[in-house]
Amino acid sequence: DTSKARAMVYAGGPRVIGLFQISEVQYCRYKYTGGLCNTTCESLMTDDITVAANCALYILRSYGFVSWGYRVSDCKCHRYPMNCDTDE
């Protein structure tokens, strides 16, 4: 149910959007397309997750998991696949 995956603000971090917690500062714009994902922030919060998934994949491929770094401290398990966050 993506209706619960809306904009959230974490302490010390940017406001993030939707299921994939994408930063509104860099990757989308409200009411018009823009940002690095060239999309609207509203499109990241719909039941059709195609746009959000493509944006998350773009972020992951371009910048790695460090783009979600403000959430890393929330991780309970710090075992990640080898080289999963390197820029290759």
From TrEMBL:
Check the record and name the PROSITE patterns matching this protein: GLYCOSYL_HYDROL_F22_1 (PS00128), GLYCOSYL_HYDROL_F22_2 (PS51348)
**Which Pfam family, an example, fits this chain?**
Lys
The answer, when asked if Disulfide bond is one of the entry's keywords, is yes
Q: Does the keyword Nucleotide-binding apply?
A: no
Q: Where is the Glycosyl hydrolases family 22 (GH22) domain?
A: 37-55
Q: Output this protein's name.
A: Lysozyme
Which InterPro entries does UniProt cross-reference here?
Glyco_hydro_22, Glyco_hydro_22_CS, Lysozyme-like_dom_sf
User: What residue range is the signal peptide?
Assistant: none
The organism's superkingdom is given as Eukaryota
Which UniProt keywords are present, listed alphabetically?
Disulfide bond
